Amino acid sequence: MVGAGISTPSGIPDFRSPGSGLYSNLRQYDLPYPEAIFELTFFFHNPKPFFTLAKELNPGHYRPNAAHYFLRLLHEKGLLLRLYTQNIDGLERASGIPASKLVEAHGSFASATCTVCRRPSPGEGFWADVMADRIPRCPVCTGIVKPDIVFFGEPLPQRFLLHVVDFPMADLLLILGTSLEVEPFASLSEAVRSSVPRLLINRDLVGSLAWSPRSQDVVQLGDVVQGVEMLVELLGWTAELQDLIQREMGKLGGRDG
Ligand code: CNA
To answer: Which of 160, 181, 195, 202 is deepest in the core (most CB within 10 A)?
Structure first.
């Protein structure tokens, strides 16, 4: 299970870290209150702030970091049952983890739907519009096209239901870079069997690991990349991870990471 904390080392602010969090940075967008950027009522009143955020998160702008590539390495070794992410930055996909291994619980920019006629957007032109500060419109009914990001009050994607089969099957739960404050995602941390170790790598002790700890829990507090690198070293995978990162850095363009 991962959250915004795995992407802060790539340069994307999280929501909650004081001063640097996304909610602090949203001031420039002229919002009545920060959460409004993910509220449908506000979106229909003024979609501009959301599309400014979309422009910021355009594919290729930010690059995955060692935490993402560690998860990709787990996949390559056949050890990743599934990656449940709350992030909407697409960096898990960008790191090369196939969509079949991902549950993007709060949606992604990879697809979009017309808010009026509900037709899936054909995709072409969407990013061209966003990058040119134009509001993308449906070619059929001219309704605003909204990326399939889950706004407050909207249902989670169907794939989220996979948790019903995945979590009872897991024999290790990694929890990286999340405050475990957003439901229903946060409660997944309690859905593994009680004998299953849960490893939290995060700046703070959070969620059920704080208020309902289990004897098998392991907590590594601090920077997520440093924590992941320590784990990778203990596993003897450091050279392998470095090779993977080198290979992938060559393929991807972008600014940060
Ligand atoms: P959050 O509530 O902002 O919590 C982030 C957590 O990560 C906090 O506990 C931080 O202390 C911790 N953290 C931040 N940076 C680091 C670091 N370098 N090393 C270790 N720990 C760190 O974010 P959640 O994902 O838990 O909350 C869910 C929201 C945030 C979802 O709805 C997301 O869509 C949303 N969000 C996503 C992104 C993104 O896609 N990158 C960015 C900002 C917010």
So the answer is: 202
